[in-house]
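STRUCTURE REQUEST FORM
Protein name: O-methyltransferase family 3
Source organism: Mesorhizobium amorphae CCNWGS0123
Requested output: C-alpha cells
Priority: standard
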Amino acid sequence: MSNKKSWTAVDDYIVASLFEPDPVLDSVLAANHDQGLPAIDVSPAQGKLLSLLARMQGAKKILEIGTLGGYSTIWMARGLPSDGRIVTLELDPHHASVARSNFDRAGVSDRVELRVGPALQSLAALGAENAGPFDLIFIDADKPNNPNYLSWAMRLSRPGTVIVCDNVIRDGDVLDEDGRDANVEGARAAFSFIGGDKRLDGTAIQTVGAKGYDGFAIAIVD
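Status: completed
Returned output:
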C-alpha cells in the first residue's frame, strides 16, 4: 500500500471510529465541489481538531483568515458556546457566496461574520474597530502573506490566544531554504516569525492523511 493510500485509509478509519455520521458536513463538501471550489479544505480529522482546540481554549471569539467554502469555519463555529462568534475573511466573492449558503445549511450563520475582500484590508479594519482580542486565530490563506497575517494576529490577540497556521510543512519542502516556491517561502517565514517573536511559544505538528504530507504550526501568546 502506497504512503498516500495508507494515510487516506487511516484517516477514514479515524473518522469511522471516532465521528458520528455527519450528512451536513458531507453536503458542505459536495456543495464546494459542485460550485467549482478547489478541494483544499482541511480534512475531517483536522476540522475536528480545530473544533476541539476551540473548546479546550474556551474560545468565545475566533478569527479565521481564509474561508474558502466555510468547511473549517463550520467546524470551529461548532466549538463555540451559544454566545460565541467567529469572524472569517475571504477574498473571492464566489467562495464567500458558497460559504454563506453552507453556513445556513449547517445552522451556524448566527455565529459567523464573513468579510469579503483582501485579508490585509479586512484585518486593518478589524484593528481600527478594536475588534480583538480573539481567543483562537486560524491562518489558512495565501502562504506568502503568512508573516503579515501573523503580525496582525499578534495585534488582535491577548496573552493566552492560540494561533494556528496551516500548511507549513509542504510535503517536506519547508527544508528547502534555497527554493523559489512562494508557498514554501511563506511556510519558512511562518517558522521564522514564530521562532523570532519572544511573545510566542510555539511548535509544529507534521500531519499525514487524505490531504497528503503537511502540518500545522501552533503557538500561544505569552
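Reviewer notes: The chain has a mean pLDDT of 97. Strands lie at 61-65, 85-90, 112-116, 136-139, 162-166, 200-209, 212-221.
Form closed.
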